[in-house]
Specification:
With about 300 residues, the protein is α/β, with parallel strands linked by helices. It is about 50% helix and about 15% strand.
Length: about 300
């Protein structure tokens, strides 16, 4: 499914939002926003999320979501580190997988990615790989600024040709986690343009693209969560990105922040309530509002029928 979603996005110049979830509530909130916006959507699980949910539970989540969702939906493994992780993701029903060997040598990255592509394509599963590496921290990922690398456009062409990968995550200046920038966000659109010139028919992916809205940070601070200095990618940059060959934009940190704000606000206002469903509903509403906003920024609203 995802390959079609991304090729449609590439053809029509919009980006599909790819949102991470680690429980049923967040998954339902993402899907609700997609249906309300009539937008295609990609729901992602990391290796950690897959372990947290449990493979059997996740398989049932995916099966149920496919039956009930009214818009095109795809499930994706985010930052798979090995062929074994890829196999697990395919077994639970993911339409696509990411193999992230970006911290290895160029040659080893090609070798590992090629093996994953050969395996996944047997099951009609699309493969995303990464070339260049993003700084920042997200779950078990921890890449120092000094170790991060921009994607080399000419290596990108060779990489795609040799691996036959379906989409490519590129490094143009974003970071994983909540603390992306110390000053104003700056992305290397000049590098992106050169990558597009070298591989014009390959859907590109942007990781580390959470917004981390300043008002949300302020609200969390008020609610007692120490998130001083958190800063993400601005809305205007994300919209600009969506009009390029970036066809998939990942979001995780701001999903977590929105869900947490919804829960904590409800507790603050209703501190005698012991019905956890009310807390969760409030968190879900915050996530749905965020995802809906992202879909408008990415220009994917009303693109479900393409």
């Amino acid at each position: 499914m995802e390959n079609k979603l991304l090729t449609n996005a590439l053809k029509n110049k919009y980006a599909v939002g790819a949102f991470n979830f680690a429980n049923l509530e967040v998954l339902k909130a993402i899907i609700l926003a997609a249906e309300n916006q009539n937008s295609p959507v990609i729901c992602q699980v990391s290796e950690g999320a897959m372990s947290f949910i449990g493979e059997d539970y996740l398989k049932n989540f995916i099966t149920s979501a496919r039956k009930s969702c009214k818009v095109p939906i795809s499930f994706h493994l985010d930052h798979g580190k090995s062929l074994e992780s890829v196999k697990k993701a395919i077994d639970v029903g993911c339409d696509s997988v990411m193999i992230d060997a970006s911290m290895l040598s160029f040659e080893d990255n090609i070798k590992i990615t090629k093996n994953v592509v050969e395996y996944a394509h047997k099951f009609n599963v699309s493969v995303e790989a990464e070339l260049g590496s993003l700084a920042g921290i997200e779950e078990d990922l921890d890449v120092a600024d000094k170790d991060s690398l921009y994607t080399n456009p000419f290596q990108a062409k060779e990489f795609v040709k040799k691996t036959k990968v379906d989409s490519l995550a590129v490094s143009i200046g974003t970071k994983h986690g909540a603390y992306k920038f110390s000053g104003n966000a700056r992305l290397r659109f000049d590098i992106l343009e050169k990558i597009e010139e070298q591989i014009p028919n390959t859907p590109l992916v942007l990781h580390g693209a959470s917004g981390v809205d300043g008002q949300d940070v302020a609200r969390l601070l008020e609610l007692g969560v120490d998130i001083h200095g958190a800063k993400g990618v601005s809305d205007d940059i994300l919209h600009k990105v969506s009009l390029t060959n970036i066809c998939k934009i990942n979001g995780d940190t701001d999903i977590r922040i929105s869900f947490l704000i919804g829960i904590l606000q409800n507790i603050e206002k209703n501190n005698t309530n012991i019905d956890y469903r009310k807390y969760l509903y409030n968190g879900m509403n915050e996530v749905s509002a965020l995802v809906a906003k992202k879909m408008e920024l990415y220009n994917s609203k009303n693109k479900a029928d393409l």
